[in-house]
Amino acid sequence: MPCSIEKCFEKYCQVMNDYSRLLDYYKACFDLVDCFHFNSETARNVYLENYGDARGEVIPITHSGIKDNRHRKSFDSTVLRMGFIGKDTPYKGLPLLLKVLKQIRNMDLWRLDVWGGKIGNDKNGQVHYRGKFDSRSVAAVYDGMDVLVVPSIWKETFGFVVLEALSYGVPVIVSDNVGAKDIVRQYDERFVFTSGTGLLALLEMIINDRSLLADFNDKILDDEWKHSMKDHAEDILGLYETIE
């Protein structure tokens, strides 16, 4: 039987008390930390909002599978080839992206490849669900897209898929919830959007002017690649050396 209002309230208070004690425990642990390594500004801001005195530095992360595979890409195709990699759950932003794409005035000028889940096509034949891929297919996946879209609607502390795409010279569009936006902004701040309206405006701009992607690709190639495990280890060691 359902509990009475009084019993439900008692359970609620117990849960909140337990949660409060858990927060106190975590804060006590954090007080023992001399310096935090934040992998993005997004991560640091969350800590500052919820903990306050979170001393540390922002250093992007990487992994050993990400290599420097940058190359010049051609963006002269009539159809804009967009890519999405990840689960189709709402928090990853795919529903938002699909909603925005339906609002593009000329529907014949784009296609979307969705990697990481089911296999099939939408009824209009513009959204292709490609399923999962492995390390042997990574290069082909990124070669098959002009731009990667990472439209997450929840806070992501980093996002390896962004760095992976850049390692193949692929321009990336990200929401401002994605921690790896710190890197994207170095190439073009316009590729970081804050709303569905902003994403729509950016996609229509790119559809009408592919030089935006070519310029982004040029900047990726011109920039020094500093995302190897060796570079990351040196950055972390440098951080440790600053701790008193």
Characterise the protein shown here.
42% of the residues lie in helices and 15% in strands. The chain has 244 residues and is of the alpha/beta class. Strands 5-6-4-3-7-8-9 form a 7-stranded mixed sheet, sandwiched between helices. Strands 1-2 form a two-stranded parallel sheet. Helix 3 crosses helix 7. The radius of gyration is 21 Å and the shape is globular.
Mean pLDDT: 91
Beta content comes to: 5-15%
| H/E element sequence | HEHEEHEEEHEHEHEHHH
Gyration radius, rounded: 21 Å
Query: How would you describe the shape?
Result: globular
Q: Structural class, judged by helices and strands?
A: alpha/beta
Number of helices: 9
Number of strands: 9
Beginning-to-end CA distance, first to last residue = 59 Å
Sketch the major β-sheet.
7 strands, mixed
pLDDT below 50 for ≥5 consecutive residues: which ranges? none
Fraction of helical residues? 40-55%
How are strands sequenced across the largest beta sheet? 5-6-4-3-7-8-9
